[in-house]
Amino acid sequence: MTLLTMDDFSAEIRYAASALEAGDLVAFPTETVYGLGADAENPEAVAKIYAVKGRPSDHPLIVHLAPEADIFYWASDIPDEARSLISAFWPGPLTLILKRAEHIPADVAGGQDTIGLRCPSHPVAQALLREFKRGKGGVAAPSANKFGHISPTTAQHVREEFGDDARIGAVLEGGQSEVGIESTILDMSRFHTHGPVLLRPGKISAQDIAGVLGIYPAMPDSEAPRASGTLSSHYAPRTPVVLAGTDMLRTTFRKFIRAGKLVAVLGYSPIILQDAIIQLTMPNTPEGYAHELYSSLRMLDDVWADLILVESPPATSAWEGVNDRLRRAAHDEGGKIDKLLETGT
Ligand code: TXA
Ligand code: MG
Q1: Distance between Cα 148 and ligand 2 center (Å)
Q2: Fewest CB atoms within 10 Å of the CB: 52, 63, 179, 185?
Q3: Which atom of ligand 1 has the smallest separation from the CA of 36?
Q4: What is the full DSSP assignment across 150-186?
Q5: Per-domain residue ranges for the chain?
Q6: For ligand 1, what atom is nearest to the CA of residue 182?
Q7: Residue ranges with strand state E in 13-88
C-alpha cells in the first residue's frame, strides 16, 4: 500500500485514478470519513472491497460521483424531489438511494435493484473522481474499515485498520475528515408510494430535508432497502461501550469502579470523574462532537480499559447523527453491564 502525501497533487491523483482504472483499491478522504474505493462498474474490483473489509456481499455500496457526473447514467425514474435535494446538498454528506439503471452491475448494489449515489465535497475526493475515467466513472466506496468497526477519519486510521494489506493499492492523504460521521442516507427509490425514508441519520438532518421537500422523511419500514449502517451493532470499538445520561453518570461510574473495573470516559459536560484511567471531554456542539467522535473512540479503545463509559449528549434532533452512532457502538449494553459486573472482583 502506497501512501500518497499530496506533495505533488496532480501526479498523485493521476496515480490513484489509474490504480482504480486498473481494478485496484484506493483509500481516499471524504468530508465524512475515509472511503475504500473501487471502480463501481468492475465487478472484480468491487469483489475486492468485500474481501478486504470482511463485509457480507449482499450489503450494498455507495457509488461516489464527480460534481459534473450524469446521474441519469446511474439511476432511472429519478423523482424531481431527488433532484431538488441534489441541488440543495451536493456536493456534500447526503447519499440518495434511487432505482438502479439496468446496465449498472448489480454487484455494487449487493444485488438490490436500487443504487446509493453521493457526490463528496472533499477537494481530494473531487479531484480523484474528476480524473478517474475523466469524470465519467463512479467509485464504489464503503468506509475504509473492517466490517462493523469504527470508520476512519484520517489516513493514519486507514493504515492502522489494514496494516500493510497488499490488496490496497494506495491511500490518499487528505487531513482529518471535517464532518466525522458517515453521510445521511435517504431512500428516494420508492418516493411515489412511500415518500422519503431516512435510512441513516447524519449531518444533514431530517429537518434540513424537510426544509427542501416540505415533508419530514419517514423512519424505515420492513420493506425499506437494507443498510448495514443500520444494523444494531456497528461503528463499534473492541472495548465495550456503556451509555449513561448526565444525571446517572457519576453513579454508573462508581458502580464500575467499585467492581474493580478500569473505566475510560467520554464526557460531554464539565463533570470530572476521579479514578477514570482516561477522560476526554467532547465539544458541546453536534458538529464539533461528530468531528471528534471516531478519533476519540479509537483513542479510548487503545488504553486497555474494561469499558468506555459515554455520557449521552442531548437527545434533540440536531444530535441524532451522533446519538445514532453512540447507540450502535453501545449495542446490547444491558447484557454487557451485567457481564462486566458479574466478572467483577
Ligand atoms: O459517508 C459515507 O457515506 C461514507 C463515505 C466513504 O462516503 N461511506 C459509507 O459507506 O459510510 P458504508 O458502506 O460504510 O455505508 C454505506 C451504507 C450501508 O449501510 C449500505 O447498506 C447503504 O449505505 N447503502 C448503499 N447502497 C444502498 C442501496 N442501494 N440500498 C440501501 N442501502 C444502501
Ligand atoms: Mg461503514
Answers
A1: 7
A2: 52
A3: 6
A4: PPPSSHHHHHHHHTT-TTEEEEE---S-SS-SPPEEE
A5: 2-213, 241-342
A6: 1
A7: 25-28, 35-39, 62-64, 75-76
Residue 189 has pLDDT above 50, yes or no: yes
pLDDT at 307 over 90: yes
Number of CB atoms found within 10 A of residue 331's CB? 16
Which CATH superfamily groups domain 2-213? DHBP synthase (3.90.870.10)
The answer to whether 71 touches 86, Cβ cutoff 8 Å, is yes
**Calpha distance 305→292 (Å, rounded):** 20
For residue 30, how far is its CA from the centre of ligand 2 (angstroms)? 13
For residue 335, the model assigns a pLDDT of: 67
Instruction: Quote the CA–CA distance of 96 and 204 in Å, as a whole number.
Output: 12
Mean predicted confidence (pLDDT) in 24-34: 98
Query: CB count, 10 Å around CB of 10?
Result: 10
Three cell numbers, residue 288: 464539533
Confirm or reject: Cβ of 117 under 6 Å from ligand 1.
Answer: no
Amino acid at 58: D
Residue 32 three-state SS: coil
* Distance from residue 109's CA to the centre of ligand 1 (Å): 10
Residues forming beta bridges with residue 116, ordered by sequence position:
62, 97
Ligand 1: which atom is nearest the Cα of residue 151? 14
Query: Would you call 205 helix, strand, or coil by DSSP?
Result: coil
* Per-residue pLDDT tens digits for 200-240: 999 999 999 999 999 999 987 767 766 655 566 666 789 99
Instruction: Report residue 87 as a C-alpha cell.
Output: 441541488
Q: Which of the residue ranges 9-13, 17-21, 338-342 would you say has the lowest mean pLDDT? A: 338-342
> Is residue 150 in contact with ligand 1, taking CB distance under 6 Å?
no
Whether the CB of 95 sits within 6 Å of ligand 1:
yes
Round the average pLDDT of the chain to a whole number and report it: 93
Q: What are the tens digits of pLDDT across the range 136-169?
A: 999 999 999 999 899 999 999 999 999 889 899 9
- For 110, the enclosing helix (H) or strand (E) is none
Other CB atoms within a 10 A radius of the CB of residue 242 amount to 19
| Tally of residues, the chain | 345
Q: Does domain 241-342 have CATH number 3.40.50.11030?
A: yes
pLDDT in tens, 203-214: 999 999 999 999
